[in-house]
# Entry
Amino acid sequence: MRSRSKLGLITFIVVAVATGVLALAVLPLWERAGFGEMNIHGIIALIIGYVGVLALTIGLMRLAFHSAEKGYDDRP
# Structure
């Protein structure tokens, strides 16, 4: 069970870092598209938003799998 938790943490970190890199890669395209320059507060808000959505998605999926494993969905 311990290795499964460690794997989940490593997966979360890898996905969070990849999402952050993607967000930083999109910034030049944002400016080139004519939406204006994004200041540091916008960048921080964007990264916090990505990480928050990622955490919420992972949490809800873990709850769904936990419910399916324990059989809570099969009860009448």
Notes: The two ends are 30 Å apart (CA to CA). The helical segments are 2-32, 40-70. Residues 2-32 form the longest helix (31 residues). The chain has a mean pLDDT of 81.
